[in-house]
Structure formats: C-alpha cells, structure tokens
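Subject: Predicted fold for Mitochondrial inner membrane protease subunit, 166 residues

User T.R. writes:
Posting the sequence so we have a shared reference for the thread.
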Amino acid sequence: MLRNALGKTFRFLGYTVQYGCIAHCAFEYLGGIVVCSGPSMEPTIQNSDVVFSENLSRHFYCIRKGDIVIVKSPNDPKSNICKRVIGLEGDKVCTSNPSDFLKSHSYVPKGHVWLEGDNLRNSTDSRCYGPVPYGLIRGRICLKIWPLNDFGFLRASPNGHRFLDD
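User M.O. replies:
I've generated the structure tokens; pasting them so everyone works from the same file.
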C-alpha cells in the first residue's frame, strides 16, 4: 500500500516537473499573454489592454523600427515596460522632446535600441534613460486580444515623423 502511494506521488511529481518545463519553455521562447498598464502607449494600446507577445523575434534578432516590444525596465528590473522601437544600433535618433525648440540628435550605440512611447507627452522612455540594451527585450507585441472590438494587429506609430532616415 505504501509502495503504491509513493509510486503515484513520484509519478505525479514527475509529470508536474515535465509539464512545468514545457510551460516554461513555451512562455520563455514562444510567447505569452500580457496585460498592459499605463498611458505611455496611448492611443495604440490603452490601459488594461491584453496583447500577445511573441519571443522568437528577439532570439533571432528580428526586431525592427516600429515594432512594439516588452522590455525589462532599465529603472526597475522587477518590472516590464511596453514601448515602440524608434531606432536600432547605428541609427540617428531625435533625443529631445517634441515641445523643445532646439532639436538634439544622437546615434544609437552598438547592441542597443531607442524606445519611445506613442504618447510622447506622458511616457518615460529612452529620452529619459537613454538607449536600452538589446538583451533587455523580452518580446515583440504582435496582436491585440482585448478588448474584442480592437482585436487584431497593431496599427502604425502615430509618431512616424520621429523615425529618421539619415
């Protein structure tokens, strides 16, 4: 009887570890569901919108300008942020706020990206903390799931003029 109970317990633990490893790999390498909070990506992503973030792009270095990404916060490593990629390594970016009279520019260093929220007036982004290391990117948002009336692929940046072609 004890042998039977121990056998069932170890089988259960084995399956738990096995499926836990599969779930971990799926969420780490394939993607997952993310609930976004805060006003920095409005009007593209509203507070409490639910999106799908795929993680394969970051592993294959397929992140492009205009992509919306989930990133470990440079200010608080325990939290994630959602921002749009404005510049990749070597790109010239505008580092000043839209309201600044004199515009300043800089180049994104190797191994980094320049991130900005779509709501430029209410976003803490690379204009505050500088270029972000590529290694902090957790995934690329490709689909809005909730609310259902907004279900689908995300729209282009309302700040397309911030993308420089120099």
